[in-house]
What we know:
Elements: E1 4-8, E2 19-25, E3 28-33, E4 39-44, E5 50-54
Antiparallel strand pairs: 1-5, 2-3, 3-4, 4-5
Amino acid sequence: MVPWGTFAREVVRITRGRLSEYRSSAQVWRGFCARCGTSLTYRHEGRPAEIDVTLATLDDPTRLAPEMHLWVRDRLPWVSIGDQLPQHAEAAGS
């Protein structure tokens, strides 16, 4: 599981290191740290103004609280979601 945050691309800044990207499928670009390979971002051409960022890589990930659970149909059978947040089988609005 990976907690992601969706942001307007125009406000996201890499403050240390360099972001490298590769096209993982026809419409998707995945970003990672050019030095260590840590997964950092996800961009989908269907959402050109947005970028998803792995929250654990933020300077202070505790500043953001989850709002929902996405792609829960793909969760492993032993994963139990115990909060009262909305759950979506796939991406919200899909």
